Amino acid sequence: MRSFGAAAGIILLLVIFTALPAGCRRTEEVQKTVMVMDTVVTLTASGEKADDVVRESIERLKEIDAMASTEGEQSDLKKLADAAGDGTWIPLHPEVFHMLEVSQEYSQRSNGAWDVTAGPLVKLWGIGTERAKVPTAEELASAKAKVGWQKLELNPETQCARLRATGMELDLGGIAKGFAADEVRKIYEKYGVKNGLINLGASSIYALGANAKGEAWRVGIRHPRSEEKDDRLAVVSLSDAALSTSGDYERFWEQDGVRYHHILDPRTGRPADNGAVSDTIVVDGRLPDAGMIADLLTTTVFVLGPEAGQKFLDNQPPEVRGMICDRKLRLWPAHDFKDFLQQVQRDFSVME
């Protein structure tokens, strides 16, 4: 599972801005970049209320960060972890409860490939931190005993939750930024902003309408094996849709020829090892929770691997499209995603 900060300082997706001819640029476009949710966020909006939209959106992101983090007085996750195993029901913010409800649904659909209770495993491996290590078999077994989506109980009537085993911890890192993108989109819509880009650390993007040239936003998907971060696998045109990407190049280290990356398979307790090196999900904005679904599905599909991930995506609603890239640089598209791809680099081949 991913944790906050997975994309901090890392450009997974490259938004390609096309310049307008001299004298034609829209002066009402506002763009602001801030650090929030442990990542670099860039918000772009057009219209008379663009300043207000961006300002309110940043405040909303800070609120979500506080309630969905693992520390702080407002952290529901810390309260749940502190009470894990003692039977206490913990009241949650509606936002956190909704994330957990959707999370449990996809845990069931994926037979545990997605699991928000993977916090002990994320902490044990420490990938992306100074304490990263390969755990012993005993340490791994101990952490796995504290993981299991079936051990998270939710009460919809009271908006409360509890963790059944001592030592359990939740990790919303693979879902919270997508949820945040949806919340920011609501603010854009409230102000009537029809054109804009919500870029949460580049791993989670929501594109509204058109760019400054009146065209769909063009997003470059990073080449998963290039040393140059600006090298692209392909380009996707995006309008009124969410896009999320995950890859084993985001945070990793190599030891004895083995790449240990941050996308953990909660079923094995180890970094997913099934041939996948990256995946990309696009969800049509007409689908509720589009940003959140795109975000959590990148982890889910990566953990499932190329063939099983492709099959899983094909069984999703038609508004959900995507692809997996494997170690041989083969692209496994689902639904009609191959029709979305433009400028596919010669390194890659598209599977049917």
Number of helices: 8
Mean pLDDT: 90
Q: What is the 3D form?
A: globular
Major β-sheet annotation: 9 strands, mixed
Low-confidence runs of at least 5 consecutive residues: 1-12, 17-27
Order of helices and strands: EEEHHEHHHEEHEEEEEEEEEEHHEEEE
What share of residues are in beta strands?
Answer: 25-35%
Q: What Rg is obtained from the alpha carbons, in whole angstroms?
A: 20 Å
Distance between the termini: 28 Å
Helix content: 25-40%
Sheet/helix structural class: alpha+beta
The main sheet orders its strands as 2-3-7-8-11-16-17-18-20
Q: Can you count the beta strands?
A: 20
What's the quick description here?
With 352 residues, this protein is of the alpha+beta class. Helices cover 27% and strands 27% of the residues. It has helices spanning 50-68, 76-82, 94-109, 119-125, 137-144, 176-190, 290-304, 306-314; strands spanning 13-16, 30-36, 39-45, 90-91, 152-155, 160-163, 196-200, 204-208, 217-222, 232-238, 241-247, 252-255, 258-261, 264-265, 270-271, 276-284, 320-326, 330-334, 341-342, 349-350.
Describe the fold and architecture:
- The protein has 352 residues and is an alpha+beta fold.
- 27% of the residues lie in helices and 27% in strands.
- The chain contains eight helices and 20 strands.
- The strands form five sheets. Strands 2-3-7-8-11-16-17-18-20 form a nine-stranded mixed β-sheet. A four-stranded antiparallel β-sheet has the order 1-9-10-19, with no helix packed on it. The protein has a three-stranded antiparallel β-sheet with strand order 4-6-5, covered by helices on one side.
- α1 (50-68) runs antiparallel to α6, α6 (176-190) packs antiparallel against α7 (290-304) and α7 packs antiparallel against α8 (306-314).
- The radius of gyration is 20 Å and the shape is globular.
- Residues 1-12 and 17-27 have low confidence and may be disordered.
